[in-house]
Amino acid sequence: MRSFHDKRAFVTGGASGIGLGIVKALAKRGAFIVIADLRPDHIDRALVEIREAGFASSVAALTLDVTDRAGFAAVAERMDIELGGIDILVNNAGVGIEGPLLEAGYADWDYGFGVNLGGVVNSLQSFLPRMIAHGRGGHVVNVSSLAAAVRMPANFAIYAAGKAAVLNLSENMREELAGKGIGISVLCPPFVRSNIHQAALNRPAHLREGSEFQQREGALLESLPGDDLMDAETVGEIVSEGILANRLYIVTHGEFRDKMRGRNEALMDAVPEAAFQY
Ligand SMILES: NC(=O)c1ccc[n+]([C@@H]2O[C@H](COP(=O)([O-])OP(=O)(O)OC[C@H]3O[C@@H](n4cnc5c(N)ncnc54)[C@H](O)[C@@H]3O)[C@@H](O)[C@H]2O)c1
After folding, report:
1. Which residue minimizes the CA distance to atom 5 of ligand 1?
2. Long-range contacts for 117-122 (Cβ within 8 Å, ≥24 apart)?
3. What residues form DSSP beta bridges with 251?
4. Which tens digits make up the pLDDT trace of 20-29?
5. 219: pLDDT confidence band, cut at 50, 70 and 90?
6. Predicted local confidence at residue 169, as pLDDT
7. Is the Cβ atom of 160 under 6 angstroms away from ligand 1?
8. Which atom of ligand 1 is nearest to the CA of 146?
9. Can you tell me the distance from the alpha carbon of 19 to that of 11, in angstroms, rounded to the nearest whole number?
10. Is the beta carbon of 162 within 6 A of some atom in ligand 1?
11. CA-to-CA distance for 189 and 120, rounded, in angstroms?
């Protein structure tokens, strides 16, 4: 993809944080973007911000829960009918599920994997055949996390495992998509200013029952993102450049190089020198 001019983008979780940063960066560069988000309050606030930034005519929004397969399929069909299909798919919606693995209930696994991995799967199933069918090519961005590429401290296993699956999936989709003229990037940020601490508010009622993380999620709600974190607009700029360069890995911060290297070297250290004799 050489430019965003006249391109149509679909951004899940695009009404807050990193997703909204990507929406603004794409709008600035001439794309038309549809935000799909679970939270009407986020959508209302995002549309005000977008209007104030002068991009009202470049952005539309709809409510969608990325775990709702039928809803996703219907929205993808609507994008074909109303926009002639999309060119850029940003699978960004995610939740900051956090808590001790040994205390997790099935509701916590289902919530974390359901949104962070299942949401990406549902999006790909709904949109990829349509992107291929329109024949213009395009680009997919999957939002993973640096948590996927380092060994995380306690309490992040479900989050990190879901994000690792998104990273791995992205790497392994590249070849098949390239054959169809579709590029792919996977975004791996560490800390970005956003509302990721609001996992409690995004958890559906049926996954509150059976959760062992609710107390922790309640406490997280009270925390505020630090002012020193990277802002989502900067991430949006970096992602835009990554799309244009068809960069597979988009990593926003340099300060975790040693942690990444340590994890990768430990894996390499486990590899025997000699090949197996078949
Ligand atoms: N903020 C960080 O430090 C950070 C770091 C690494 C990765 N990430 C990832 O970035 C992505 C965006 O997160 P963020 O930090 O901007 O958080 P955020 O909470 O500000 O934004 C996420 C948006 O996704 C929406 N959402 C949540 N569940 C949804 C669902 N089921 N269906 C549709 N929309 C849903 C929320 O309403 C929200 O508007 C996530 O995938 C997150 O895991 C964030």
Report:
1. 190
2. 117/162, 117/165, 117/166, 118/66, 118/67, 119/12, 119/66, 119/67, 119/91, 119/93, 119/94, 120/66, 120/91, 120/166, 120/169, 122/66, 122/67, 122/68, 122/69, 122/72
3. 188
4. 999 999 999 9
5. very high
6. 98
7. no
8. 6
9. 7
10. no
11. 17
The alpha carbon of 180 and the centre of ligand 1 are apart by a number of angstroms equal to 29
* Cβ of 13 below 6 Å from ligand 1: yes
Of 111, 159, 249, 278, the active-site residue reads 159
Domains and CATH numbers, the chain: 8-269 (3.40.50.720)
Average pLDDT over residues 1-6: 96
Tell me, in angstroms, the distance from the centre of ligand 1 to residue 12's CA: 9
The model's pTM is: 0.98
Is residue 159 flagged as an active site residue? yes
- Please give the C-alpha separations between residue 46 and each of 168, 200, 243, in angstroms, as whole numbers: 31, 20, 23
With beta carbons less than 8 A apart as the criterion, state whether 197 and 17 touch.
Answer: no
Ligand 1 centroid to 216 CA: how many Å?
18
Judged against a pLDDT cut of 90, whether residue 224 lies above it is answered with: no
Are 90 and 27 in contact by the 8 Å Cβ rule? The answer is no
Whole-number pLDDT of residue 25: 98
Closest CA to 89 of 41, 51, 124, 42: 124
- Cα 196 to ligand 1 centroid, rounded to whole Å: 6
Q: Kindly state the tokens that stand for 212.
A: 């062992």
Q: What is the DSSP letter of 138?
A: E
Segment holding 59, helix H or strand E: strand 59-63
When pLDDT is cut at 50, 70 and 90, the band that residue 225 belongs to is: confident
**pLDDT tens-digit series, residues 181-191:** 999 999 999 99
